[in-house]
Amino acid sequence: MSQSPLTPGFAPQPEWRIEDGLVGYPEALGTMETRVEAILAGTAPELVWLLEHPPLYTAGTSARPEDLTDPGRFPVYPARRGGEYTYHGPGQRVAYVMLDLGQRGRDVRRFVWMLEEWVIETLASFGVRGERRQGRVGIWVVRPDRPPLPDGSPAEDKIAAIGLRLRRWVSFHGISVNLEPDLSHFDGIVPCGIRDRGVTSLADLGIPASMPDLDLALQAAFLRVFGPAG
Predict the structure, then answer these.
(1) Strand (E) positions, the chain?
(2) The pTM is what?
């Protein structure tokens, strides 16, 4: 694992919840709101919530109308998180993280780095090299099997998205990792406002992983990145 620019703090491990079926986006927002308030009140522990959504688009606070290229395709929801347009749907694991940064160092830069590292560590367990890119949110995979871009740089695709919101130092939203979603569903938006890069998934990369496999990898990587309980 590469080294963080800042030393991670330690906090008790959060509760983990894994949903079996598809969870509607308004329901997910309501659950996050309720849990964040309970964390702030000291009546509930932190939560990492793993789920899948039905096909939909979400609009972050920086979303531009022109980046919604097929507005009638799927429902569109304002997300009240940072970022632009994102697709969610079956075959994509969404991990909503309701964590108390007040107990984890109050360092947003470090926290975003750790979310990125969580995805990178998870992908590494499947033999996939995920990378950060300066000025581009999310985790990227180089595609040497495809022609280079017009400027000569290697082709690359996005495999995971990150979106975050804080309320009094407690986080909302989190990450999404593409296991085997229908990649054509991303065609109705310009994902995260980036027009010259594509989108991929573990299945698209030839990785025969199941959702339980991905969940186990996420849990193991979370412990490595965020530290042991205590």
Answers:
(1) 15-22, 47-52, 56-59, 76-78, 85-88, 92-98, 131-133, 136-142, 156-167, 170-178, 198-199
(2) 0.90
The sign one gets for the Cα dihedral 150, 152, 155, 156 is negative
Amino acid identity of residue 8, one-letter, is P
173: left (phi over 0), alpha (psi -120 to 50) or beta: left
d(C-alpha 32, C-alpha 36), whole Å? 6
Beta strands in 105-151 (DSSP E): 131-133, 136-142
Catalytic residue among 192, 194, 205, 214: 192
Tokens of residue 118, six digits: 């969580």
CA dist 88 and 14 (Å) reads 24
| Residue type for position 20 | D
- Encode the chain (230 residues) as per-residue pLDDT tens digits: 333 333 333 346 799 999 999 999 999 999 999 999 999 999 999 999 999 999 999 988 888 888 899 989 999 998 877 778 899 999 999 999 999 999 998 999 999 999 999 999 999 999 999 999 988 889 999 998 888 888 888 889 999 999 999 999 999 999 999 999 999 999 998 875 566 678 999 999 999 999 999 999 999 999 999 974 43
- Counting Cα atoms < 13 Å in the Cβ hemisphere of 201 gives 23
Distance in angstroms (rounded) separating the CA atoms of residues 15 and 59:
28
- Strand pairing of 56-59 and 76-78? parallel
Q: Reply yes or no on whether 192 is catalytic.
A: yes
